[in-house]
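Problem 12. The chain below contains 266 residues. Write out its predicted structure in token notation.
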Amino acid sequence: MTKTSEAPIGVFDSGVGGLSVLGEIHRLLPNESLLYVADCGHIPYGEKTPEFIRQRCAVIAEFFHAQGAKALVLACNTATVAGVADLRERYPNWPIVGMEPAVKPAAAATRSGVVGVLATTGTLQSAKFAALLDRFAIDVQVITQPCPGLVELIETGDLVSPAIRNLLRGYVEPLLVAGCDTIILGCTHYPFLKPLLREMIPDSISLIDTGGAVARQLQRLLSQHQLLARGPALESQFWTSGPPELFRNILPLLWNKTGNVRFFTV
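Solution.
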């Protein structure tokens, strides 16, 4: 299928977390039309097998391909680890952007030499994350902190309750005790907790996520393929494999506007 510059971009995540990446893409590339699938019916990916995640990636990618999307963004660290290589092999001429925890910029930014990582269990246990540490974190100490339960609370729109405060504090305090001066937000859901995190950590500690870097890489690939849109962008479209009403209710909180949400039946 020949792609045109005015075709949309497909973005997906296991849930609502990828909206943090969608926001970065929209800010950098306001002329681009965006399609988003939240695979909420199968969240969290971090607790699923790699084979299951690869199957979901393939189903969603084929959906976007059928929608005429000119590029694909895996706005999920766990999905990238499990599925991006297969997708690039299956669609060799399709610009595909994945995500990975920001180990390289964090290693460059740290002054204490101690970097913390908040991420899902699946991301932290992956071979790709181990390879990132081997490549970029030779001279720094990396303290990893799996964060079970955070994604599920964020999925409900809970960004401030006592429950999520207590859960997050329990994950952050060991990193502070260890002397981390840089913390990687290794899941696309976690940038929505930045205001809460800022209440818990000193201003001197840097919070790093990769949404902006993903948007810039997408911009580079679209430019290389002469696919940058001139605009104006069409209204963003959303699908979810969970209850559409729940996703519709959370959109104004995480996307800052309402949107058309349909049920993703595949």
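Discussion. Residues 103-209 form a domain with the Rossmann fold fold (CATH 3.40.50.1860). Students who got a different answer should revisit the alignment rule from Section 12.3.
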